[in-house]
Amino acid sequence: MEMGSYRSTIEFPDVYAKQPSSYVRDMDTSHSMDSPLLSPDSARQSLGFTKAAITFRDQLGSIRRKRDSEQTVTSSWVPPTPTLPAKRDSLDRSIKILRIVQSTLTALLSLAIAFMQGRVYYIFLRTKNVPGAWPKTPQLTQTLLLFSVSVSAFTFDICMLFAYLMPNKRFAKKLYRIANGAHYIVTSAKTVAYALTSVVCKLGFNFGNSSGTNTDLWSWTCTAEAAEYADYNQAPSNCDAQTIAWYFALAQIGIELIGVVISLLVMQQKIRKLGQEDGAEENASPSLGNKRYEKLAELSPEVDTELSDVTPDVNATAHF
Asked: What's this model's pTM, rounded to 2 decimal places?
């Protein structure tokens, strides 16, 4: 039976350049059914292979388009603003409570010191003209210095408490930030002031007792000579008051130092907790499928190359 002629042109990429010559066909000829170069069955097989490759390529393109659309949605994903965790709130509360307690104690001590020193100075002013009640050349430096430091410290502590306990939320945050920023400055200033004043007062007291001059009010009120005029200068009570005020100043220094140490420990723990939480947030992924798509995106160029290598460009027509 005589068969019609047909035209077939199949172009293969360079990857087939090293294949046997029977695989390379670029022809424009007419052959019979039993042509040794390209039979109709071979042409049909080539066309079937090409259709399968094109179908596979279309499917892969559909997968890529779906992936790209999902990546676009994922890339526009904005993580919500994280709220403070319970641990972070607990640490903030601990620091705030610690500073409230510290400011309350130091405010009470400062008020007591100011009251006792102010009382001694007031009695001195009221009875300084009584002969023998006070030294001939009294030294008021120690008394006034400790009184001034205690009044300043009390003012600072009240401001701190007002900032921490501010009921008005409009100003609470601003005052709280100011209080936090000024806390260590005020604490350091009070500690240094009380330390220096305590040293000055104690040195004046010891010098007055050792030299027998007793020109400062503290050492004078503790002498037997001043006790003879107790009806005027109230020497015994003033001696005890100034001694207690000096110990209160030492207690102030101790409370401030303990507060600084505890605050540093709490802040260190807070920094460590925040570091752990930030690390956990950085390691968190917004979508579990992102890694799969990223891996597919990395392999996509290789898939394109391999598919291009194995997919011939076919332009075949057959006439029967």
From this structure: 0.58
Residues 89-114: tens digit of each pLDDT: 666 677 778 888 888 999 999 999 99
For 1-41, the pLDDT digits (tens) are 444 444 444 444 444 444 444 444 444 444 444 444 455 56
**Every domain of the chain and the residues it spans:** 7-76+294-317, 86-283
User: Within 13 Å of residue 140, how many CA atoms lie on the same side as its CB?
Assistant: 15
- Per the document, the length of the chain is 320
